[in-house]
Design brief:
Elements: H1 2-6, H2 14-21, H3 25-34, H4 48-62, H5 68-97, H6 107-144, H7 148-151, E1 154-162, H8 165-171, H9 174-194, E2 198-202, E3 206-211, H10 214-228, E4 237-245, E5 247-249, E6 252-254, H11 256-267, E7 272-275, H12 277-285, H13 301-317, E8 334-338, E9 342-344, E10 348-350, E11 353-357
Parallel strand pairs: 4-7
Antiparallel strand pairs: 1-3, 1-4, 2-3, 5-6, 7-11, 8-11, 9-10
């Protein structure tokens, strides 16, 4: 089975592979570990494909196309992504195809011809999806050259978390728990992608997503709550969102904005969405909420307009975005309700806003 997948015999020790690829052994070892593989000593475990891959990666560094640290990141990010994919395919996909074993046949007997048929098709599909994703990311990067907000790394960040999942996991059988998580993750992934957001990662009972547009992120959050509350098998959902500068690295996002979104999730009521003040102001600038909806209790509309002007001025000074409120804004999509200020660990006092959908007028 292994030889079928590798499509080549194991011929080289690590030292022989490095020498054949004309790459220093120390660099070859770093590439190998970055991809997620253990040290193999002097075992003949490597193939011609390993030598070619090593030569190509080192060649990019030698040509000056990427730096050595970047090459290590390429190896690490690719290894981590494909490792998860391979685990899923073996644990779920292949298992479902080999459940009904005929008497006298082992799982390997059944799996071999299936892998033989599926491998080239899955390989082609993997390359196709990667190219589509690369095209989508490239489009966002090119657009960023004309969009200060994207260039500055300002994103709407959302966390969605199942309430009481730990207690629920103690009561459910493993198969039931797996089905619940699968339903949650697939439903969230479809909604995030369908509305134009980007799913960053799933953590079993929690997802993290981002969007360049706060209104899109808000629509996703409310759609998640509305969809999952219709499923009686699902626990309650709570969502926290924040808007601000975000650091992106290896497909993940970091920074104070991400931490704030996570903290807001932990204090959100069941089946509700909480956002921070920056998010509320961004929604108002887009005309997604009525004017002064993002004001603190008792603040007049004029005060909010002045505050927003100050925020815009600060944005200019910091190299941030400038938005103007469209006075001809059509119907507002969302409603905001101020909540009590409360201390949030590591972030000081936070004034959250409860986000709801505005009822349609008849």
């Amino acid at each position: 089975m292994e030889q079928l997948i590798l499509d080549a015999p194991r011929r080289y020790t690590p030292y022989q592979a490095a020498r054949s690829a004309d790459v220093p052994m120390e660099l070859a070892s770093r590439f190998w570990r970055a991809m997620g593989f253990p040290d193999i000593g002097q075992s003949r475990a490597l193939t011609d494909a390993d030598v070619i891959a090593l030569r190509r990666l080192a060649g990019l560094v030698e040509a000056g196309l990427i730096s050595e640290p970047m090459a290590i990141q390429v190896a690490r990010s690719t290894g981590q992504t494909t490792a998860r994919l391979a685990e899923w395919q073996m644990d779920t996909f292949l298992e479902s195809l080999t459940q009904s074993l005929e008497p006298g046949l082992s799982r390997a007997d059944v799996a071999y011809p299936l892998v033989q048929l599926l491998l080239p098709e899955l390989e082609e599909f993997l390359v196709y999806v990667w190219r589509r994703q690369l095209a989508a990311v490239t489009g966002r990067v090119v657009q960023a050259a004309e969009d200060d907000e994207v260039t500055s790394g300002r994103l709407a960040v959302g966390f969605a978390d199942l309430v009481g999942f730990t207690r629920l996991s103690r009561r459910l059988e493993e198969e039931e728990l797996g089905e619940l998580v699968e339903t949650f993750e697939s439903t969230c992934a479809d909604l995030v992608a369908g509305h134009g957001g980007r799913l960053i990662k799933t953590l079993g009972d929690e997802i993290l997503y981002v969007s360049d547009d706060p209104a899109v992120a808000a629509e996703i959050a409310l759609a998640l709550v509305e969809t999952l509350t219709k499923d009686d098998t699902m626990p309650a959902l709570r969502v926290g969102m924040a808007f601000g500068t975000v650091t992106s690295r290896m497909g993940d996002v970091f920074g104070t904005t991400v931490n704030l979104a996570s903290r807001l999730t932990s204090i959100a009521p069941k089946d509700a969405v909480l956002i921070d003040g920056e998010f509320a102001a961004a929604l108002e600038r887009e005309g997604a909420v009525p004017p002064s909806a993002g004001a603190a209790p008792g603040t007049p509309a004029e005060g909010l307009a002045e505050a927003l002007s100050t925020v815009a001025a600060v944005g200019v000074a910091a190299g941030g975005p400038v938005h103007t409120v469209d006075r001809k804004a059509p119907e507002h999509r969302f409603h905001l309700q101020p909540m009590w200020r409360r201390p949030v660990r590591g972030l000081g006092l936070v004034e959250p806003w409860l986000l709801t959908r505005r009822p349609e007028r008849g």
